Amino acid sequence: MEQNVFNFPNQSYNLKEAFMFESFYAEHLEKITSAPTIRRRILRGQSLFNAGDSFSSLYIIRSGSFKTFITDGMGYEQILGFQMTGGLIGLDGIAEEIHRYSATAIEDSDIRSVNYNDLVELLKKNPALQHQMYKLMSSEILRVSHMLMLLGGMTAEERLASFLLDLRNRQHLQGYSQSELQLKMSREEIGLHLGLTLNTVSRIFSRLSAMGIISVSNRYVKILNPAQLHHLVHQHIQS
Asked: Which of 3, 192, 196, 221 has the fewest beta carbons closer than 10 A?
């Protein structure tokens, strides 16, 4: 197994990229103590960890995508979210030292695992990095809250519109086009995330396409009218 070390500021892959530290400057990075990481290749469909596994590490997505999900006693899967390049997985295990959800690759992916205790020592020595970690944890809480809002009050059309806008914004942060999306997840997985059936997801895609808001070709979505997508979401917020 390949071992890699965060080494600032010359390493091609470092915590600045992984945590998207847009506001960090080189002089801050130079002060960060390196933390050893282990590279792993996770193939599509393979699990990174499962609910009930003991917690020891956090995982930074170097490339690829994952879904995080829980499964009830009847085998029903609720997808909590989709994590992409630059994302951090495993925060759920910190509180009780056990993972409460599962994480599976939805495409061939590369991750770096960092031992949590090593990371804690690194954070103690760098308050700026520690602050960014707190922001990441806060973002996770906000993401779950947003998910509950989607499932609790939005119509099916509003849920899908909100999902596409969120995906658009996240891909833009990675330097990709804001108008063309490549869906790494299936329509069924989108439905399991938004609380919709596969038929409903397919129907709404067709409806938004007929309205001229998007165009769809297999897993490629082109956003033709982002303002109208925003309107669909905001009409719910303002109502």
From this structure: 3
